[in-house]
Amino acid sequence: MNDKCDRREFLKLGAAGAIGLAGCATPFAKKTVPPWTGTDEIRCLLLHLGHNMWCEWLPEDVQKTAKILPRYVPDCELRSRDDLWLQATDHMAKRGYNMLVIDVGEALVYPSHPELAITGSWTPDRMRDEVIRLRGRGIEAIPKLNFSATHDGWLKDYHRMICTPKYYEVVRDVIRDVVEVFDTPRFIHLGWDEERAEWSGNRNYFVMRAGDLWWHDFLYTVKCAEDCGVRPWVWSDCGPHKPEYFDRCPKGVLQSPWYYDAYNAKLSMDKKENPHWWKLQNILDLDRHGFEQVPCGSNWVGHVRRHLKMDADDVMGLVVKFCRERVSAKSLKGFQMAPWASCDTEENLQKVLRGTDLLADALQKA
């Protein structure tokens, strides 16, 4: 990568320039990435191998002595169990899935930054073996990192160095590492969801980028992925909160709008009937602006449905039905199930298996 900033682009990023980004890799000219050319619809499961996506990372000795603990305490030992992981991925293969997005986080010993590992993190060779094993079951393994400031606890101390030259160096390095370990996959999921004040204002340590600085860092990760020959993939919830998103986000970035927890079974677009209508509108707006997308549903029960004592088994089927009826075939590249449960307990495994079945059954009915 070119390590010298183009001065004209640098000056446009006044917020970034104020904190000394003269050593980072810019400019970020919009690229036209060839559209996805696969013939098979993506049938995808999101599965967590790492879990430190929601914490404020503090050194272990500080955690023990602090009077006020962080909202989320990070894992210091890998939580995922091998036997449950095998059951989950084998079930995927039996139900006809062709893609697994692996939330990597701290679960890999990064060759360039082994300090990010925790006890039990997989070595690069072990991850390569798993990619090969999954490929043998007809499943394409896609790495997922998350560079949202609300979901990057896996970066440990680098989380608190956001927008510094060292941060950009680490971001570039870990993207390069996972692309190499995953044998140059078609995609890399970069996260980028929920970096808003309402998601983090009650945490002990809170970072939020805004304006051109957010765009600088977002596009930096996009370019890092493209420089490695891999297509970037992101969560799409920034669209409704950044009116310029549809114009400034490169069309080559694969999108995953998500719809969870809403209790309105008819998926009403009426604001009075469905407070989650904007999530559905986001799907339609992405289609209208020419983005390719893999919408995501879940069987995770959020606070809305917990309050109403409802399960979430209907959500994935509703998402599939809505998209089949209202999204163009050119835009709709497949579907993703995100159970938001891990392979760490028998109870969570059952949530994963149930979620796997829900998407498979919905696609059969569609």
Task: Please specify the SSE layout and strand pairing.
Blueprint: H1 7-12, H2 14-17, E1 42-48, H3 60-65, H4 82-94, E2 99-103, H5 124-136, E3 140-144, H6 165-181, E4 187-189, H7 197-200, H8 211-227, E5 231-235, H9 245-248, E6 254-256, H10 277-288, E7 296-297, H11 303-307, H12 315-326, E8 334-337, H13 346-365
Parallel strand pairs: 1-2, 1-8, 2-3, 4-5, 5-6, 7-8
The CATH topology, please? Answer: TIM Barrel
**Order of secondary-structure elements:** HHEHHEHEHEHHEHEHEHHEH
Count the DSSP helices. Answer: 13
Q: Count the beta strands.
A: 8
Low-confidence stretches: 1-38
CATH superfamily descriptor: Glycosidases
Could you say what the CATH architecture is? Answer: Alpha-Beta Barrel
Shape: globular
Overall pLDDT: 86
Query: Helix/strand-derived class?
Result: alpha/beta
Task: Summarize the biggest pleated sheet.
Answer: 5 strands, parallel
Major sheet: arrangement of strands: 3-2-1-8-7
Proportion of beta-strand residues? 5-15%
Helix coverage percent of residues? 25-40%
**Count of domain modules:** 1
Name of the top-level CATH class = Alpha Beta
The N- to C-terminal Cα distance equals: 45 Å
Rounded Rg: 20 Å
